[in-house]
Amino acid sequence: MENRIPSQRGTVVLALFAAIIVVLAFTPLGFIPLPFIKMTIIHIPVILGALLLGPKCGACLGFLFGLTSLINNTISPAITSFTFTPFYPLPGSDKGSWVSLIVCFVPRILVGVIPYYVYRLIQHLLHAEKPGSTVSLAAAGIAGALTNTIFVMGLIFLLFSDAYAAAKGIGPELVLGVILAIVGTNGIPEAIGAGILVAAVGKALFAIQNSRKGLAS
Q1: Residues 115, 47 contacting (CB under 8 angstroms)
Q2: Are 68 and 129 in contact (CB under 8 A)?
Q3: Which residues, in sequence order, are CB contacts of 183 under 8 Å at separation 6+?
Q4: CB contact at 8 A, 77 and 96
Q5: Strand runs (DSSP E) across the chain, as ranges?
Q6: pTM for this structure?
Q7: Which neighbouring-strand residues pair with 26?
Q8: Residue by residue, what is the 3-state secondary structure of 117-164?
Q9: CB of 144 within 8 A of CB of 111?
Q10: Quick check: 157 and 179 in contact, CB under 8 A?
Q11: Which of 37, 143, 144, 194 has the most Cβ atoms closer than 10 angstroms to its Cβ?
Q12: In this predicted model, what pLDDT tens digit does every residue of 161-212 receive, in sequence order?
């Protein structure tokens, strides 16, 4: 079993990750400009929190990630914000849909769960004796980013295909192609970036955690 941060200190670490998520979500710091896209990094503290504190805390951080998305899409809406908030009307309607809460929260909660189990699986396959293998951390980062992109865009396709087409001004038959293009152009660079960031930052955090345990023993 992986050793985790003791509960009392874990609460402090959880609060710290939560604060980072809020700062990233409501400031430009949450996005890294790349040549063709702005790469979001708001999911990075969710993934790291899950790896250090476990999937329950990861799910809580993921819920907070979803909540910030709900707030942002409500107070600063874009043309497709109806997919993330029930307070923004669907195209051709004066009402939003509660189904948007599924898109807003479920993928983000899973971002705090799936990477943890991917990390544990890779640690087991590598027979890693110490927590924080670079390969395991990178795999967790990639899994977390892809979880966010694939589940969000997949749910939009399943639940809002016609409304999404109307908002984008395209035919319904083109929605799948547009979504796959977004997954490819946004999702893959974000997954690579998440793998690098989670491996780099996670390695440092696990080293600090291991050194503290060594001092305590």
Answers
A1: yes
A2: no
A3: 149, 150, 153
A4: no
A5: 31-33, 38-40
A6: 0.92
A7: none
A8: HHHHHHHHHCCCCCCCCHHHHHHHHHHHHHHHHHHHHHHHHHHHHHHH
A9: yes
A10: yes
A11: 144
A12: 999 999 999 999 999 999 999 999 999 999 999 999 999 999 999 988 877 6
Structure tokens at 144: 């977390």
CA atoms within 13 A on the CB side of 139: 17
Residue identified by tokens 């083109």 is 174
Kindly report the backbone phi and psi dihedral angles of residue 33, in degrees, each rounded to the nearest multiple of 5, phi listed first: -70, 125
Report how far residue 194's alpha carbon sits from residue 200's, in angstroms, rounded to the nearest whole number. Answer: 10
CB-facing half-sphere around the CA of 209: CA atoms within 13 A:
22
Could you give all domains of the chain from N- to C-terminal order, each with its CATH number? 7-212 (1.10.1760.20)
How many Cβ atoms from other residues are within 10 Å of residue 84's Cβ? 25
CB 50 within 8 A of CB 112: yes
- What residues contact residue 105 under an 8 Å CB cut-off, 6+ apart? 63, 66, 67, 70
* Residue 204 identity: A
